[in-house]
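Re-run with default settings, no changes from the original entry. Doing this only to confirm the output is reproducible before filing.
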Amino acid sequence: MKRIYNLKIFSIEVIAIAIAMVFLVPFYYVIVNSLKPFAEILLNTSALPKELMWENYSNAFEKMNFGKVFLNSLIITVSSNIVIVVFCSMAAYMLVRTKGKLSTVLFFMFVAAMVIPFQSIMIPLVKFTGKIHLINSIPGLVFMYLGFGAGLSIFLYHGFIKGIPIELEEAAIIDGCSRFGVFWRIVFPLLKPITVTIIILNSLWIWNDFLLPLLVLQDASLRTIPLATFYFFGQFTKQWDLALAALVISILPLLILFFFLQKHIIKGITAGSIK
């Protein structure tokens, strides 16, 4: 059936474009002001730069030690994603395939954990992790991200695994495959759409996270990109020109990841909800 283009559709498109432009305004301010000298930013933040100050990027790159902080952020993000995917996929599989009240209670506990504000537990968390010597270490931070990311990840995996026919697993067990082998050889490959979705969502969260690394990583050599950017803002001075350039540099890796994998977000969530 041929789609009829009328005034109603045109009006919806105009409204959608207008809303999109509103969300793009912050990006305009960040990019435009990252190319201005500090004095020009203070005079007029909305105007285009009179002269492009590409030195802001090189200076920000050098002052924030971008190579080191980028590596720290990359290690933390990749390690956290691996740990979350491995443990949460196995946990969700057992919760789905093990029928009983205990499985139901555990699942709802993971779901309920998603609504607990981080600010309400951050002080006890820091005290407890300090006692078990997880403060000021990347493995300790990864362990915490597993705890905070488990709720949503198990919830998404749980909905997707329920749609996988159990007959596939029974056939594999008859052929001599172990329960562990069934999961990694049969079930886990089928989880690719939702796994990609979970990796993207967790990467956006972990890469941009500021508060938890600030509480845990006290050593300057362990700083992540958000922490390194924060130190452009001192008590008496704020280096807006370098800070905005640093922000542009820091969001580029995530933008590249998102543009390459964005189609899997809706695909994974939709597949999980339908199944």
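The chain has 13 helices and no strands. Residues 65-274 form a domain with the MetI-like fold fold (CATH 1.10.3720.10).
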